[in-house]
Write a structure and sequence with these properties.
Low-confidence stretches: none
Mean pLDDT: 95
Structural class: mainly beta
Strand content: over 45%
Shape: globular
Oligomer: single chain
Length: 117
């Protein structure tokens, strides 16, 4: 199993930036993809961005061009640089992984991001 700990959230004004971090531990040797998800109040959790072990990236339509996902393999850490934040980006942000076996890690506590208008 993979354990995940997110950090870096906070309160920011619209147009501001935040950088989220997520450290993975446990069975990390076969991670194929690292992802950031978010869940706003009353909404389903959605995939925001992903990065594969080969460096390919994916972004949700609503964040493309504003968010950047990156990965430090040596530190078992994935980052999400969020620029030009909007009130609709307000959510709890979670990271997760997908292993070569198609399994997911244990969801962490997430980190709250609040964007004021």
């Amino acid at each position: 199993q993979v354990q995940l700990v997110e950090s870096g959230g906070g309160l920011v004004q619209a147009g501001g930036s935040l950088r989220l971090s997520c450290v993975a531990s446990g069975s990390i040797f076969n991670i194929q993809r690292m992802e950031w998800h978010r869940q706003a109040p009353g909404k389903q959790r959605e995939l925001v961005a992903a990065v594969t072990s080969g460096g390919s990236t994916f972004y949700g339509v609503s964040v493309k061009g504003r968010f950047t996902i990156s990965r430090d393999i040596a530190k078992n850490t994935v980052y999400l640089q969020m620029n030009d934040l909007k009130p609709e980006d307000t959510a709890v942000y979670y990271c997760n992984v997908v292993t070569l076996d198609g399994l997911r890690g244990n969801w962490g506590q997430g980190t709250q991001v609040t964007v004021s208008s």
